[in-house]
Specification:
mainly alpha; two-stranded antiparallel ribbon
Length: 232
Amino acid sequence: MEHHAPGYELFGIHLDLAALLMIGITSIIVLILAISGARKISVATPSKLQNFMEWTVEFVEGIIGSTIGSKHGKGFIALGLTLIMYIFVGNMLGLPFSVVTEDHVAWWKSPTADIAVTGALTVIVIFLSHYLGITRNTKHYFAHYFEYKGAMLILHLIEVVSKPLTLAFRLYGNIYAGEIMISVILGAGWYGFAPLAVWQGFSVFVGAIQAFVFTMLTMVYISQTLVHEEEH
């Protein structure tokens, strides 16, 4: 049986209440993890959560160092850390269980399984990258558009437009497809127990990879507008 999301019309705008709920839950979980990992920091006897958070920060620093560079990238550690944690937690929420009412309304899902959520994240990333290019690298930001002529300019503009589309649809498609597969396997009853365990393990891997890819591409796009090629 196909499920549908709860909705509400506000000033002619359709709101997906399930997506809003999951966005809030994801934000709360990430906030709790961040606060808990930063509390009672110890150099001598760090907790497991502190070790995990430190590893995550170092991992994000590595992403930024390989894309933007240490000179320009220090200010983007918080952005990268927020993105990778938020997307990973959001990717995981739809894996353990689902909440569906008797009238087939699905209240619990991964927020990143909604194209509106991944689209909003992409809009923020693309806007930020162009804003930084215009405000911090104005001359080279506008000059690079004049480096292309004729068909090459058209191809370049297509590339600029396609970036946000691929960024949003890649994350959405992978997470949504994963949840569809879980629903299909659950329909097999007890026969689907073993395949479900295997698929959920694979989905954790995919969710982690997608969080990494989204964060990496975010830093790449910022690098392309912020750092001039001669500075690499």
